[in-house]
Specification:
The complex is a heterodimer of chains A (219) and B (221).
Chain A: H1 6-43, H2 47-62, H3 65-78, H4 85-110, H5 114-122, H6 127-158, H7 169-180, H8 183-212
Helix pairs in contact in A: 1-2, 1-4, 1-6, 1-7, 1-8, 2-4, 3-4, 4-6, 5-6, 6-8, 7-8
Chain B: H1 12-46, H2 49-63, H3 67-80, H4 87-112, H5 116-124, H6 129-160, H7 171-182, H8 185-218
The chains are: A mainly alpha (219), B mainly alpha (221).
Chain lengths: 219, 221
């Protein structure tokens, strides 16, 4: 049996955290691109597109992430495609984050007063010009805090990929726990690491929400 | 290849019992979590400094760590302290502790939106702090944030799928069991996803209707 000192335990967990961070970044960046696409399709003037996107969002938000992961990892393999844990984890999280971000951002766009659309249309602006010069610059102020807040959800969601064998922080924790027979200490340390990753984001999301909400500030 | 769901028919009983366990976990976790949430929100808004800080630490600690880690901490960690727990008990404890933090935050929002005049009116009737909270503040606050609470309850049901990882035989556990037998992973998980969709839809509808009913009966206008 390999024996671990306390410092070695901490070190093993910290080193494994890099995969949690890499996967979170991949999911966030990919999710942001997909979310932007879904947002554009959702507010486009085509009913079929709107319904299609709404369907994706309902599926993603209406089923557990774990089921989506299994569907991607075991289900798609059973259909004859070769998916390893990395690909399945990244793809599932990108789709998951994209569906949520697309929906969050749609809320931000819809929060912009109708008069802004009408005023810009009366200036002879086309749909893309309206979005580019009038709607997005205002919507982004509301969207930034919500997006930073959502990134916390993404980091926490990566923990589930340990279940399909992706080796990140939580997966490494079970190795360390099994090798040391010290589950309380191991999972306690893991919780602290996740907290250190997530809390600064949660905190700044709250701060940003207060700072960027200049237009609607009441007190 | 074509999808063939008839592979699932031999497992009807297992699926049905999985659904029941999922619903049981959701109901127990959600309702006890709601009670813990009320206590947390109260501590956060009306408690003394110690209680307030304890509530903040609890809420931030839970909201910034993954549910899976909380679950494993309770399931593997607590027995190391000498507490013997069944898998289902661990799952329920994790669920309650997790939901309590989120619902506490939602309820805090509702409580803080209470108009100052409500407190003044209550104190002019010589109500104590507890009486004010219990009879004046709490009920309208719950009503105000009811849709958000229902949303959290549904998220809670999705969280129960994670409890499959400590071998509680709820729906996701049953799904994994079935696909390990019939090797029809795609059909199995699509079917389970559909089941969760239907369950979530029904629960949301029922709770929203129940909320409308309760709040119409209970609040004097």
């Amino acid at each position: 049996m390999i024996s671990f000192s306390f410092l070695e335990m901490v070190w093993a967990l910290v080193v494994a955290t890099r995969w949690t961070i890499v996967l979170s970044a991949v999911a966030l960046i990919g999710g942001a691109l997909l979310g932007a696409l879904l947002l554009i399709l959702r507010i486009a003037h085509s009913r079929i597109l709107r319904w299609g996107v709404a369907g994706i969002i309902v599926f993603v938000q209406g089923t557990p992430l774990l089921i989506q992961l299994f569907l991607m990892f075991f289900g798609v393999s059973a259909l004859g495609f070769n998916v390893n844990a990395w690909v399945a984890a990244a793809l599932t999280l990108i789709i998951w984050a994209g569906a949520f971000l697309g929906d969050i951002w749609r809320g931000c766009v819809e929060a912009i007063a109708r008069g802004q659309w009408e005023a810009s249309a009366s200036l002879g602006m086309g749909w893309f010009q309206q979005l580019r010069y009038i709607i997005f610059p205002q919507a982004i102020r509301i969207a930034i805090p919500a997006t930073v807040g959502f990134s916390v959800q993404v980091i926490k969601a990566t923990a589930l990929t340990s279940v399909i064998g992706f080796i990140e922080l939580t997966r490494t924790a079970s190795f360390v726990s099994n090798a040391t027979y010290r589950p309380l200490l191991t999972y306690g340390l893991v919780a602290i690491i996740y907290f250190l990753l997530c809390w600064p984001l949660s905190f700044s999301a709250g701060r940003l929400a207060r700072r960027l909400n200049v237009a609607n500030r009441t007190s | 290849m074509s999808l063939d769901f008839s592979w699932l028919s031999p497992y009807q009983d297992a699926i049905f019992s999985g659904i029941l366990v999922t619903i049981r976990l959701t109901l127990i976790g959600g309702s006890l979590g709601f009670v813990l949430g009320v206590a947390t929100a109260w501590a956060r808004v009306h408690g003394g400094p110690t209680l307030r800080w304890a509530a903040i630490a609890y809420v931030e600690g839970i909201r910034n760590t993954p549910f899976l880690v909380q679950l494993l901490f309770i399931f593997f960690g607590l027995p190391a302290l000498g507490l013997r727990l069944t898998a289902e008990m661990s799952g329920i404890i994790a669920l309650v502790v997790n939901t309590g933090a989120y619902m506490g935050e939602i309820l805090r929002g509702g409580i803080e939106a209470t108009h100052k005049g409500q407190y003044e009116a209550a104190s002019s009737l010589a109500m104590s702090g507890y009486q004010t909270f219990r009879h004046v503040i709490l009920f309208p606050s719950i009503q105000r944030v009811w849709p958000a609470l229902v949303g959290q309850f549904i998220l809670d049901m999705f969280q129960t799928s994670v409890i499959s990882q400590i071998a509680v035989e709820e729906l996701t556990f049953v799904a994994s069991f079935i696909q390990s037998r019939n090797f029809r992973a795609f059909e199995t998980y699509i079917f389970m996803a559909g089941t969760y969709l239907v369950l979530a839809f029904l629960m949301r509808r029922l709770l929203l209707i129940a909320g409308r009913f309760v709040f119409r009966m209970g609040v004097a206008r």
